[in-house]
Amino acid sequence: MSMTDKGYNELERIFHERDAAWLAARREALNRERQALKEKSSKGAFWMICPKCGGQMKEESLHGVMIDRCGSCAGIYLDRGEFELLARAQQGGLKRLFGAS
Ligand SMILES: [Zn+2]
Questions:
Q1: What's the 42 CA to ligand 1 centre distance in angstroms?
Q2: Any residues with CB less than 8 A from the CB of 47 and at least 6 apart, and which?
Q3: How far apart are CA 40 and CA 36, in angstroms?
Q4: The whole model's pTM is what?
Q5: Å from CA of 29 to ligand 1 middle
């Protein structure tokens, strides 16, 4: 194949298609891994185990938000979105405390 513009563009198209196919396959594989990990971890050895000291995490309510607190080191683990919820709840509490609106 000569390196005419047409040939070059054809090669580029082929590479692009291979990239797109690879990316799609990789994305699909990662999604499968994520789902498998989720199913495994919800019943597995690390479920509700403190990532810092290995103690047993207990669910408790903080400002109406369910959080996980370690029974050994008292560390707190927040799931996705819980920090934002707590920050919002805390903001409301401060407003009430200082009488701001
Ligand atoms: Zn701990």
A1: 19
A2: 41
A3: 6
A4: 0.46
A5: 33
Question: Which residues partner with 57 through β-bridges?
Answer: 70
pLDDT at 43: 63
Q: What is the pLDDT of residue 38?
A: 58
- How many A from CA of 88 to the centre of ligand 1? 26
- Profile the chain (101 residues) by mean pLDDT over runs of 10 residues: 68 81 73 68 74 92 82 90 79 62 47
DSSP string covering 58-77: EEEEETTEEEEEETTT--EE
C-alpha torsion angle, residues 51, 53, 59, 65 (rounded to 10): -60
Tokens representing 57 are 């995490």
66 in Cβ contact with 59 (< 8 Å): yes
Burial classification of residue 82, based on how many CB atoms lie within 10 Å of its CB (0-12 exposed, 13-18 middle, 19 or more buried): middle
